[in-house]
Amino acid sequence: MTTETQRITPLLAGMDTVYFSCDLPLSDALRERLTQEKTVAQARAAQRQVHCPEWLEARIAPQGAKGGYAFLIETEDFSVKLLGEHIQNRPSIFIEMRSHALHTHPEGAAGACEAALAWDLVASLRRPDRRCKGGDLLHRGEDLPRRHSY
After folding, report:
1. Is 95 helix (H, G, I), strand (E, B) or coil?
2. d(CA 12, CA 66)
3. How far is it, in rounded angstroms, from Cα 58 to Cα 65?
4. Where exactly are the structural domains of the chain?
5. What residues have CB less than 8 Å from 7, skipping those under 6 apart?
6. pLDDT tens per residue, range 74-128
7. Which end of the chain is more exposed for a tag (fewer CB within 10 A), N or C?
8. Burial 63-84 (b: 16+ CB within 10 A, else e)
9. How does strand 78-83 pair with strand 69-74?
10. 133-150 pLDDT tens trace
């Protein structure tokens, strides 16, 4: 049994992790570009380095993630998993928010989630009239503002 002085005091309270998914199409051009970046990431991993493509402004992992996700992309605030090309019956995008972002975002956890959805890659998938800064990967349109970097 603990005494009053040994009692545990929470330093932060609230959500620790938030997961959400979207079922949005990935273009062949985007898949090809991400596959090329993943190949570079694999080569750099052999040299104990990471790969952060400038157009993506995030780290692309040399391997995907469990559950058929071919690509794992990470920022300081969240990670994004993109489903493999022929995997069915799962959402194509899975986002995992990091605890620090949920606790420190000026607009709280909801604001952190909105920021992840507004991130260039995800926003370009949500809005087919927009594209990523890295080129005409999805459709013609204007570049989206940068919000996160790794």
Report:
1. strand
2. 30
3. 16
4. 16-126
5. none
6. 999 999 999 988 887 788 899 999 999 998 999 988 999 999 988 888 888 775 5
7. N
8. ebbeeebbbbbbbebbbbbbbe
9. antiparallel
10. 333 332 323 333 334 443
The structure's pTM equals 0.75
User: Nearest Cα to 31, choosing from 87, 95, 96?
Assistant: 87
The count of other CB atoms within 10 Å of the CB of residue 99 is 16
Give the separation between CA 16 and CA 26, rounded to whole angstroms: 29
- Write 111-116 long-range contacts (CB < 8 A, 24+): 112/18, 112/77, 112/78, 113/18, 113/20, 115/77, 115/147, 115/148, 116/77, 116/78, 116/80
Burial of 148 from C-beta contacts in 10 A (0-12 / 13-18 / 19+): middle
Distance CA 84, CA 143 (A): 26
Identify which of 42, 40, 27, 134 has the alpha carbon closest to the alpha carbon of residue 85.
Answer: 27
CA R_g for the chain: 18
**CA 61 – CA 44 distance, rounded (Å):** 10
CA–CA gap between residue 60 and residue 33 (Å, rounded):
12
Q: What residues have CB less than 8 Å from 134, skipping those under 6 apart?
A: 33, 53, 54, 55, 56
